[in-house]
Design brief:
This protein is of the alpha/beta class. The chain has helices spanning 45-52, 74-80, 96-106, 111-124, 140-151, 170-185, 220-226, 232-246; strands at 5-16, 19-30, 34-39, 60-65, 68-69, 81-84, 158-162, 189-194, 205-210, 213-218. InterPro entries: AAA+_ATPase (IPR003593), ABC_transporter-like_ATP-bd (IPR003439), P-loop_NTPase (IPR027417).
Length: 247
């Protein structure tokens, strides 16, 4: 596997019975890249990401994350990555500070390091005033930004974001992407799944999944040019129509 690549997948497949949720997908993600994994709900994005982070065994194919094999080195992968799920990974019955301390411990940080990082995190997000409030009482946008920051607490090589901006307003989505840009500028590889087609424009490169397959992969500008489209949503619609015609 190429050491300059953060993620490599070759014919990666996951079947549930006779149904192929992810069907022989192949792609590479460079270190420090913001890679968009686009597709409609049910296209197979979450299944793919669960295989890459070591939570779900592939049926067939090959993949490596941070240089580790997804079949045999899943635990090593988990130490190198951050992960934020679409349903958030924070505990709603714990306070902001308790969540930070909990995940800092899970990531193996020392007590002093957790305290220092917590203060820095709360200051950067302007959440000092709610550090002792339960997560469940916070607005969705605050939860979202905090969940991302907690996923980055241990300074992972790669962060996986599964539908991170679902359900929030456009301003909060923009603020969240500013966090993503900052992480990428500091060298973190960002792998983000989304069904918001406009978010493709924020990525370095984009793959578009339709019915478990990657139907297109390029830069946003490259996709628009290849399909003579005004935006990525038009590209997606054309690909979806093509898949329907093929059936």
């Amino acid at each position: 596997m190429n050491e300059e690549l953060a993620i490599q997948a070759n014919d990666l497949t996951r079947k549930f019975g006779d149904f192929a949720a992810v069907d022989q997908i192949s792609f590479e993600v460079s270190q420090g890249e913001i890679f968009g994994f686009l597709g409609a709900n049910g296209a197979g994005k979450t299944t793919a990401i669960r295989m890459l982070i070591g939570l779900l065994a592939p049926t067939s194919g090959k993949a490596s994350v941070a240089g580790f094999d997804v079949y045999t080195q899943a635990e090593a992968i988990k130490r190198k990555i951050g992960y934020m799920s679409q349903k958030f990974s924070l505990y709603t019955d714990l306070t902001v500070w308790e969540n930070i301390r909990l995940y800092g411990g899970i990531y193996g940080l020392s007590e002093d390091n957790i305290k220092a990082k917590a203060e820095e995190l709360l200051s950067s997000l302007q959440l000092e005033s709610v550090r002792d409030k339960r997560i469940g009482s916070l607005p969705l946008g605050w939860k979202q930004k905090l969940a991302f920051s907690v996923a980055m607490l241990h300074e992972p090589d790669i962060v996986f974001l599964d539908e991170p901006t679902g359900g929030v307003d456009p301003i909060t989505r923009r603020q969240f992407w500013e966090q993503i840009y900052q992480a990428a500028e500091e060298g973190t590889t960002v792998f983000v799944t989304t069904h918001y087609m406009d978010e493709a424009e924020y990525c370095d490169r984009v793959s578009i999944m339709v019915d478990g397959k990657i139907e297109a992969l390029d830069t946003p500008a490259g996709l628009r040019q290849a399909y003579q489209a005004d935006d990525i949503e038009d590209v997606f619609i054309e690909l979806a129509r093509g898949a329907d015609r093929a059936e």
